[in-house]
Amino acid sequence: MKTFKNPILPGFYPDPSICRVGEDYYLVTSSFEYFPGVPIFHSKDLVNWRQIGHVLDRPEQLNLDQTPNSRGIYAPTIRYHDGIFYMITTFVVSQTGARRNFYVTATDPSGPWSDPNWLEDAPGIDPSLLFDDDGKVYYTGNRKPPEGPKYKKHNEIWLQELDLKKKQLVGDKYSLWDGALKNAHAQEAPHLYKINGWYYLIIAEGGTGHTHAVTIARSKKVTGPYEMTETNPILTHRHLGNDHPIVNVGHADIVETSAGDWWMVCLASRPYGGYYRNLGRESFLVPFTWEDGWPVVNPGKGMIEEEMAFPNLKEHKWPEKSYMDPFESKKLDDQWNFLRTPRGDFWSLSERPGYLRLKLKKESILEEENPSFVARRQQHKSFIAVTKMEFKAQTNNESAGLVLLQNHNYQFRMEYRKNDAGNFLCLVSREDGKDETKGKVATDVDTLYLKVEAIGQSYTFSYATTYNKWEILAENIDGTILSTDVAGGFIGAYLGLYASANGEKSKNYADFDWFEYHGINE
User: Fold this and answer.
1) Which residue segment(s) compose the domain that 336 sits in?
2) Which of 136, 179, 435, 497 has its CA 20 to 30 A from that of 446?
3) Handedness of CA 389, 395, 396, 398 (dihedral sign)
4) What positions constitute the catalytic site (predicted)?
């Protein structure tokens, strides 16, 4: 039996949403405060995915300036109708939860996508769209019940018609459902479907942590009333314990294949080294069938497995990407992200062809800012990352190097800098906003090779002045500070290249010749 391995998108790719166009499948995920926003993927077999760009790739589409940690773009939905792709999502703009919902459109999923169409009087998060048979379009989202919540985190799912010509919500708002369980909380992630004359409403409840779950209700009328199946939740791992390899399963979307089979994409996490989720929430795939008008997920098992039977589709692998980026292209590869929308031209691939140049900004990675930082997701429990850097600090405030980031208060910085005694390389561990130097060595060179090797939660940081002649800077460093379980928030760990003048103006820069990343034994 041919099989595939979960997750289908490893690393920080939460809240997957999927649609099919003929033989092609498209998937989007949340991106929070990282830019470009909403990565979009293409597949022909539901297992092998290639990124074809980002939906929100222009600063005028998405201004993440001053967006706090774990805020930004939440839970996109992608749909296709009459030759047009729609992506609708929430922009959470502040720590207090102030938010706005909007949608963008495109005729080509690889872009360009339109500027946002902002929707007024659209409370809550996690919007979705249903294109009904009669030509009407319905918006669903979550909100606090109009009569007030009955208990903490009590939400409901609501519906309203969306007029695409006026680009606004019209008509009455309808309360649809507030979940399957008694005193269910954090009802969110609604997706509404019209299947065999029924309106099916799939939601998430229980919060996006360990008690996450997928539940379902249905109605003959789009406005309700909605009845639920007695088998709810239709998917959860909340009962499998902390030692289970896949946890916090929820936030699902479904798709029917060209072969007539049904599949569900959802988020989940893979803890390791204890209950630590450095990788964040990832995208998983699981089959389901219909029995008596209700979904039965992975019949006989009822849960997501690490290895599952391949879909009844012809396998379609994409050309394998190199794990080394030589920075020889005219544009950054899609794997790279900025922390918030870039302000100013602080990076370049053209000023020195074949190198990524990072100009030192006064903003640092110790604050909720837009530092000179270009990073990619950690996608494996064990990995190696290496880069070649050319840099020389001109003042005691200047630094450049390799950063492993959870947020501004939890991180590792492998920095080359100087003080009155001379130049040095150091490893700084930052936990709960407090720095601790874990390793330091004096060195006076223009070129350094920097390497981090993680075996589970044990991290070793090394350097070389000649490639492959490695010296250990710090070893057996506990990597759990990069997990959301220690640091909080909703985001998986990133690692990348960094340069800062730490509060001062500077004309200095760091040049990175290449960057290499690959998983170990995965």
Assistant:
1) 324-519
2) 435
3) negative
4) 15, 188
Task: Give the residue from 286, 309, 332 where a domain finishes.
Answer: 309
Q: Are residues 329 and 302 in the same domain?
A: no
- Are 96 and 136 contained in the same domain? yes
Smallest CA-to-CA distance from 325 within 375, 252, 361, 268 is with: 375
Could you say which of 285, 309, 333 is where a domain stops? 309
Sheet holding 99-106, edge to edge: 72-81, 84-92, 99-106, 117-119
Total residue count of the chain as it appears in this document: 522
337 and 290 inside one domain: no
CATH classification of the domain holding 98: 2.115.10.20
**Which two three-digit tokens encode residue 173?**
């708002």
- pTM score: 0.97
* Same-domain check for residues 332 and 304: no
**Helix, strand or coil for residue 481?**
helix
* DSSP sequence for 176-218: EE--SSTT----EEEEEEEETTEEEEEEEES-SSTT-EEEEEE
Give me the residue label for tokens 């409370």.
123
| Same domain membership, residue 57 and residue 195 | yes
Domain-located, residue 318? no
Give the span between the Cα atoms of 45 and 24, in whole angstroms.
8
Q: Could you tell me if 49 and 132 lie in one domain?
A: yes
**Do 299 and 362 reside in the same domain of the chain?**
no
Residue 32 sits in the same domain as residue 176: yes
Domain assignment of residue 314, yes or no: no
Please tell me whether residue 497 adopts helix, strand or coil conformation: strand
CB 190 within 8 A of CB 138: no
Sheet holding 422-431, edge to edge: 34-35, 337-339, 372-377, 494-500, 399-407, 410-419, 422-431, 434-442
Q: Hey, which residues are catalytic here?
A: 15, 188
pLDDT, tens digit only, all 522 positions of the chain: 999 999 999 999 999 999 999 999 999 999 999 999 999 999 999 999 999 999 999 999 999 999 999 999 999 999 999 999 999 999 998 777 678 999 999 999 999 999 999 999 999 999 999 999 999 999 999 999 999 999 999 999 999 999 999 999 999 999 999 999 988 999 999 999 999 999 999 999 999 999 999 999 999 999 999 999 999 999 999 999 999 999 999 999 999 999 999 999 999 999 999 999 999 999 999 999 999 999 999 999 999 999 999 999 999 999 998 899 999 999 999 999 999 999 989 999 999 999 999 999 999 999 999 999 999 999 999 999 999 999 999 999 999 999 999 999 999 999 999 999 999 999 999 999 999 999 999 999 999 999 999 999 999 999 999 999 999 999 999 999 999 999 999 999 999 999 999 999 999 999 999 999 999 987
